[in-house]
Design goal:
With 146 residues, the protein is α/β, with parallel strands linked by helices. The chain has one domain. Helix content is 38%, strand content 16%. It has a 4-stranded parallel β-sheet, with helices on both faces. Helix 4 links the parallel strand 3 and strand 4. Helix 3 runs parallel beside helix 4. The longest helix is centred in the N-terminal third of the chain and has 18 residues. Keywords: Signal.
Length: 146
């Protein structure tokens, strides 16, 4: 892991076993290394929501609930996925479901393989959220021993 110690994952969805669990752990560590840069030095934990292709509908429901719970609290958390198209679609649906009167004051750090999306920024702004984009580098190529 890294020196930032404890990470909280209230909605982290890594229900994997065997080799897939190792790949998921490697993905989680890559995301964590990128995401920690969005927080002040000395940060020891942050909220992370990992969007996986396993159940898109559940991701939308859970993320909508998480965003709604933020209400007017100032919050900063990470939403991440290796699948940029999936993440874009999930966030667009979540923002579309959010009521415009619910002025969310939260900052969302989006970690994915693609850079900023004006469409996502506009949709987030309509519900009072702000987005920061960090690019997730590709996974390292497997070595001969893998």
């Amino acid at each position: 892991m890294n020196r930032y110690a404890l990470l909280l994952f209230p909605l982290l969805m890594l229900a994997c076993t065997g080799a897939r669990a190792e790949a998921s752990q490697a993905t989680f560590e890559r995301i964590t290394r990128v995401a920690i840069a969005a927080f002040p030095p000395g940060t020891t934990s942050f909220e992370l929501f990992l969007v996986t292709p396993d159940d898109r509908a559940a991701s939308v429901r859970q993320l909508s609930s998480f965003l709604g719970a933020a209400k007017k609290q100032r919050a900063r958390w990470v939403v991440a996925s290796e699948d940029a198209e999936l993440l874009h679609g999930v966030l667009m649906e979540v923002f579309a479901r959010s009521r415009r009167s619910m002025r969310i004051q939260t900052q969302i750090v989006v970690v994915s393989p693609i850079p900023a999306s004006v469409e996502l920024q506009d949709a987030a702004r309509e519900v009072g959220a702000s987005l920061e984009f960090l690019v997730l580098p590709p996974a390292p190529a497997p070595t001969a021993g893998d």
